[in-house]
Every structure is written in structure tokens, then in C-alpha cells.
Amino acid sequence: IDDEFEGAVKYAILGLGQGGSRLAETFWNFGYRRVCIINTAEQDLNLIKIPKDRKMLLPGGGAGKDMLLAAKSITDHYEDVLDFLRRGFKGGYDRVLVCLGAGGGSGAGTLRTALDIVHELNISLGIEKSEKDKKVGVMVALPISTEGKKVASNALNISSWLFECVEKDLVSP
């Protein structure tokens, strides 16, 4: 898989949930070709204009802002997601950028396990060679204040956890 432009760094892009899928689609539109998206809501996947083989629907019929429901879905399909990313990021890359919306269920709910899967993939491909050699970054879209308490709670939860990940060198800046 080759990007449609020349760049100094080869990025693989993973979009999680509706917000992350839209961010990943933007990278696709810029010419990035190692792009994959994962969601629990089929209607959200259908709106994203990238090839179908780059989209993965996790069972559940949508998470409805329920992070635990989305977390269970990706954990139950860990190996399937790993295989999906291995196919979608084929051809080599230097770093992975995981994109998500912090307030939703599918994006925020799948992030923890998705990061584990991406790190496992990186280690298996020799991209990460040690615990401190993290080649994964995270791009988070924060909700606006009028989106409600559940969305704000999800955003606070996942953002707090991400700050801990940065302090522990689990994700790179």
C-alpha cells in the first residue's frame, strides 16, 4: 500500500467511532492509504467514503455513548481487529495515529483495547522494539459543552486516562 504523495514519515491511520472515522476519512482524502476505521454502528460506517475493505463493523448495533459496551465488543474481537489492521496497514509504516471523538461510546470505548492491539501489531512487525519505543500517537476531538453530561463524562474519563498514558510513555506526542 502506497500513499498518493511523498512524505518523510509513513503514517497508518486508525479511526475509532464516528468522530474518529471522520478524521481518518480526511486523511484518506489527503492521500494517505494505510487508513482503517472501526465502529459499532453500521449507519456511521456507511457515511464514510473510503473503500469497504478498510471498514470494520464490530457487533452490537452501536454503542449509544456507552463506553463499556464498545469496550466489550472490541475485546471480544481482539484477534479479528488485529488481522484487520495487519491487512489494512500492509506495506509498512513508521507510526500509527489513532483518531477518535472523546465523548462517544465507540471511539472512547474502544481506545484502550485498540492501543493494545496497535502496540502488539507494531511489535510483531518490528516497528516497536522496546517498551519505551512507542510509535503510536492519538488525535482526540473533544465535544462541545452543549452535548450533555454523558458525553462530558466520557470525554473526561478517556482524556484523564490518555494523560496517564502520555506520562507513562505509552503513547508518543
Provide the descriptors you would attach to this structure in a database record:
single chain, 173 residues, alpha/beta, 5-stranded parallel sheet
Quick one: how many beta strands? 5
* C-alpha-based Rg, rounded: 15 Å
Secondary-structure content class: alpha/beta
The termini sit apart by 25 Å
Strand order of the largest sheet: 3-2-1-4-5
Shape: globular
Number of continuous helical runs: 6
What is the H/E string? EHEHEHHEHEH
Oligomer: single chain
Low-confidence stretches: none
What do you see in this structure?
The protein is α/β, with parallel strands linked by helices and about 170 residues long. The chain contains 6 helices and 5 strands; from the N terminus they run βαβαβααβαβα. Helix 5 (about 105-125) links the parallel strand 4 and strand 5. Helix 1 (about 15-30) crosses helix 5, helix 3 packs parallel to helix 5 (about 105-125) and helix 4 (about 80-90) packs across helix 5 (about 105-125). About 45% of the residues are buried. The mean pLDDT is about 90.
